[in-house]
């Protein structure tokens, strides 16, 4: 994906490019599968593919790392992530792809609020600004000029809150759990959660859907992996603007493949959310440097 000889920022950009392609593939695969399968089936096969891949890796890396004393944390994290994935796929089927991505950008706003409640993180003034801009941005996106709100937009907004809870629970788990352990329980728990509703609404799987099942399963893992590598290589102030490129990229895919049109208010709202996120990240970075300077 990226040449080790490249500058770290260039490598991060390359990994973000991989994440963009994988995310677009997952979005298209989800929409194509929705013509044949229920959303619960899509989530079932997504988790099944993920569990197979993670199990193959663990077979080489060692199964001992999946032992955990924090099963409750894994269950909460993955119940939340399962709900988030359902809302995300539901949105991809019923509203423009770009609208889903734009609303998804509010996840950091909800993360700030949930982290204050769950892990007692302080809501600093820059974070308050981020929350205010984020809420203003989401209002522009979901209800432009007084137009009625599509139920799928509300589902995606709820999924963003659920994604935020997932991020907070991941932060609580990472001190004791390995990434492979977290990925294993993510796939296993969500496979179980999707199995029951899928069984009650099982639809025949046509041959033309099989390759999309593989795409939706693998693209999810690739997206998470590429984002993690990018975050490791570059500062968040660089990665966050690169992540914003998801919006025009997905808007272009939606326009080319499905004839979707995108309102300017969507980009304006997303820009407000991005500005809030960047301001908060930059302010926290300055605060951290100030604390380090005063302690030296």
From TrEMBL:
UniProt xrefs under Gene3D superfamilies: 1.10.3730.20
Membrane disposition: Multi-pass membrane protein
Pfam family, one: EamA
Identification of the protein by name: EamA family transporter
SUPFAM superfamilies: Multidrug resistance efflux transporter EmrE
Subcellular location(s) of the protein: Membrane
Domain EamA: 14-142, 152-278
Organism annotation: Bordetella genomosp. 7
Alphabetic keyword roster: Membrane, Transmembrane, Transmembrane helix
Cellular component aspect of the GO annotation: membrane
Transmembrane parts of this sequence: 12-30, 42-62, 94-116, 128-146, 152-170, 182-200, 206-227, 239-258, 264-282
Keyword Transmembrane helix: yes
Keyword Membrane: yes
UniProt lineage: Bacteria, Pseudomonadati, Pseudomonadota, Betaproteobacteria, Burkholderiales
């Amino acid at each position: 994906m990226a040449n080790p000889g490249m500058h770290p920022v260039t490598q991060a950009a390359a990994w973000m490019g991989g994440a963009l392609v994988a995310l677009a593939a997952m979005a298209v695969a989800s929409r194509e599968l929705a013509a044949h399968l229920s959303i619960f089936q899509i989530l079932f096969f997504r988790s099944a593919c993920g569990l197979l891949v993670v199990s193959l890796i663990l077979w080489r890396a060692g199964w001992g790392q999946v032992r955990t004393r924090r099963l409750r944390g894994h269950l909460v994290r993955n119940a939340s992530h399962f709900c988030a994935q359902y809302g995300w796929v539901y949105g991809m089927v019923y509203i423009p792809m770009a609208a889903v991505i734009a609303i998804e950008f509010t996840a950091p706003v909800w993360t700030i609020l949930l982290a204050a409640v769950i892990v007692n993180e302080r809501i600093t003034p820059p974070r308050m600004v981020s929350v205010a801009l984020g809420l203003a941005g989401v209002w522009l996106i979901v209800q432009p000029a007084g137009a009625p709100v599509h139920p799928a937009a509300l589902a995606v907004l709820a999924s963003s809150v659920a994604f935020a809870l997932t991020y907070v629970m991941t932060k609580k788990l990472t001190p004791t759990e390995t990434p492979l352990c977290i990925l294993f329980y993510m796939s296993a728990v969500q496979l179980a959660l999707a199995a029951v509703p899928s069984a009650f609404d099982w639809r025949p799987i046509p041959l033309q859907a099989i390759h999309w099942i593989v795409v939706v399963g693998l693209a999810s893992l690739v997206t998470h992996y590429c984002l993690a590598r990018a975050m490791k290589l570059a500062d968040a102030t660089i990665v966050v603007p690169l992540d914003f490129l998801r919006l025009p990229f997905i808007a272009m895919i939606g326009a080319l493949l499905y004839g979707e049109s995108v309102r300017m208010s969507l980009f304006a709202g997303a820009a407000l959310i991005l500005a809030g996120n960047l301001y908060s990240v930059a302010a926290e970075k300055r605060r951290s440097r100030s604390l380090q300077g005063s302690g030296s």
